Amino acid sequence: MTLHASLSYERPRQRMVTDQLVARGIVDARVLAAMSSVPRHMFVDPALVSRAYHDASLPIGSGQTISQPYMVARMTQLLALKGHERVLEIGTGCGYQTAVLSRLCRRVYSIERISALHERARQNLRAARHANVMLKCADGRLGWEDYAPYDAIIVTAGGFASDVWLQQLKTGGVLLLPEGDGGAHRLVRRTKNTHGYSEEYFDACTFVPLLEGVESSLNR
């Protein structure tokens, strides 16, 4: 993408931040700065680039979506990242949420179960020059034990928490996910402590379902 083409998205991106995020209560300055700088248009399908900064989720193939900008910012704000954290993301998708997280923590470890999306995210993140990210194509419900424990775990598909995630979380760490089924979810933040965990409930929302297993291009 040429410099001129990239600059042409600056104004809609800043409008997105002002009209969709600040106006709806996103106040974390670091989150707003990350959303202002990550080029969302590089993570959507070419045919949908003109809608990249609209207040809507968009299809990315394989029955998945890129979440609306507000939900990405809202979930990121609820993690309350300071910059030193190691974060596990369950559900890389096209890599947009991954890119936002990478601007706010030390390293992101992200798992995607659909091989075509895993490869697409890898290409997107490389093009957008996000270097502090490690990607894996695997069943996200199993977590990523090699690099545990994590300071935070964020889940970008709707369902119910895997016990493995809490096991792979540091004491004092947070697990954030859209909990529920049938397309009716609610953001839940669980904070791990020495005796178990505490939990807080936030926005109602709708996410694609959290599924088990790995879907490769060979079995599609």
TrEMBL record:
Catalytic activity: [protein]-L-isoaspartate + S-adenosyl-L-methionine = [protein]-L-isoaspartate alpha-methyl ester + S-adenosyl-L-homocysteine
Active-site annotation: 67
Keyword Lipid metabolism found: no
Record lineage: Bacteria, Pseudomonadati, Pseudomonadota, Candidatius Mariprofundia, Mariprofundales
Principal place of residence: cytoplasm
Places the protein is found: Cytoplasm
Gene Ontology cellular component list: cytoplasm
Keyword terms, alphabetized: Cytoplasm, Methyltransferase, S-adenosyl-L-methionine, Transferase
Superkingdom, taxonomy of origin: Bacteria
Function noted in UniProt: Catalyzes the methyl esterification of L-isoaspartyl residues in peptides and proteins that result from spontaneous decomposition of normal L-aspartyl and L-asparaginyl residues. It plays a role in the repair and/or degradation of damaged proteins.
Single GO MF annotation: protein-L-isoaspartate (D-aspartate) O-methyltransferase activity
Single GO biological process annotation from the record: protein repair
Family recorded in the similarity comment: Belongs to the methyltransferase superfamily. L-isoaspartyl/D-aspartyl protein methyltransferase family.
The name this protein goes by in its record: Protein-L-isoaspartate O-methyltransferase
EC number from the UniProt entry: 2.1.1.77
PROSITE patterns: PCMT (PS01279)
